[in-house]
Write a structure and sequence with these properties.
Length: 147
């Protein structure tokens, strides 16, 4: 897998029947290693180890209904109050973070109403704060602090 522009961590890999799996500390099992999963796992560790987000408040691959279609978010982060705080959309490192990627995440957030929306391909990430009252997005320089 490609080196990412995220801090490295001590990941665990396993090979079974010619497929490589990576250990997911949140789901507590090995997951098939794809480029997107590589980014997702690194970003989860980035949230936990470098931004002090509690792993107990992070959920992966949650389903939602969008226009009668079943979709899923890559990462959901909840606040201490139990409310959804942030969604993160992960893409493979070779996928450019275009307006289409941002629009996909924003569509999901129309349903979920998280305060923060983040997109990443492991090389860069962009985070914005949503003001739902006036439907305004403010792009942030970094991820919000977990309080």
């Amino acid at each position: 897998m490609e080196n990412l522009n995220l801090p490295p961590y001590d990941y665990k890999l396993r090979k079974v029947d010619e497929k490589i799996y990576i250990y997911d500390i949140l789901r507590r099992k090995y997951i098939v290693l794809t480029p997107e999963e590589w980014v997702r796992q690194h970003f989860v560790h980035f949230l936990i180890n470098h931004h002090q987000y509690p792993k107990s408040l992070i959920k992966l691959e949650s389903s939602l209904m969008y226009n009668t279609l079943l979709k899923r978010t890559d990462i959901q982060v909840y606040g201490r109050d139990g409310n959804l705080m942030m969604i993160v959309e992960c893409k493979a490192p070779y996928i450019k973070l275009t307006q289409n990627v941002f629009s996909q995440a924003a569509e999901y957030n129309q349903v979920l109403k998280a305060e923060y929306l983040t997109i990443t391909n492991g090389m860069v990430y962009h985070c914005c704060k949503t003001n739902w009252e006036n439907m305004h997005l403010e792009f942030l320089k970094d991820l919000p602090l977990f309080v």
